[in-house]
Amino acid sequence: MSMHPDHMYYAGIANEFGLFVCKRLPFGLKNASASFQRLISIVLAGLNDLQVACYIDDVIIAFHNFEHHFQRLELVFQRLAAANLKVEPSKCSFLQFEISILGHTMKDGQVLPDPKNLDSIQNTMPHKLKIRSDPF
Questions:
Q1: Does residue 14 lie in a domain region?
Q2: How confident is the model at residue 126 (pLDDT cuts 50, 70, 90)?
Q3: Which of 34, 28, 35, 33 shows the shortest CA–CA distance to 13?
Q4: pLDDT given at position 135
Q5: pLDDT of residue 8
Q6: Could you give the CA distance from residue 8 to residue 105 in angstroms, rounded to a whole number?
Q7: Do 67 and 109 lie in a common domain?
Q8: Which residues form the signal peptide (predicted)?
Q9: pLDDT digits (tens, 9 = 90+) for 24-70
Q10: Residues facing residue 13 across a β-bridge
């Protein structure tokens, strides 16, 4: 996502080697995630009814058969290409029957808590809270 030329210098980094400015919006800036979410929502607008969901940089395409899944996948890639957005293949997972996102696992039409989160909750020691009998 390109930054406006007037705003590049606000996100610059100055050190002994000089001033370096970002031409593209880096994550970590206060509104970077919200700006990118707005962009991806505009690019993929109208696809929610086609079982395509996006959350910041995660795009989930769900379907029950491969033919429809590939059609939706092609449609998403066309939209991304039209907006000059690129996908990093090493960060993509295709044809998954189970995914973990936002602390939940989706599998067989069910949304379950992520087992990693359950372990930390179940293995937490109970608090030993003593109730004080004396008032102030």
A1: yes
A2: confident
A3: 28
A4: 65
A5: 79
A6: 39
A7: no
A8: none
A9: 877 777 888 888 889 999 999 988 777 888 888 888 888 878 888 89
A10: 20
Determine whether 25 is exposed, middle or buried from the number of CB atoms within 10 Å of its CB (0-12, 13-18, 19+): buried
In 3D space, the residue among 80, 85, 79, 77 whose CA is nearest the CA of residue 24 turns out to be 85
Does residue 12 share a domain with residue 49? Answer: yes
Residue 21 lies in a domain: yes
* CA distances, 131 to each of 21, 113, 126 (Å): 56, 33, 15
56 and 112 assigned to the same domain: no
Question: H/E element holding 112?
Answer: strand 110-113
Per-residue pLDDT, 75: 93
Residues 80 and 113 in one domain: no
**pTM (2 d.p.):** 0.68
**Into how many domains does the chain fold?**
2
Interatomic CA distance for residues 3 and 22, integer angstroms? 8
Residue 65 confidence (pLDDT): 84
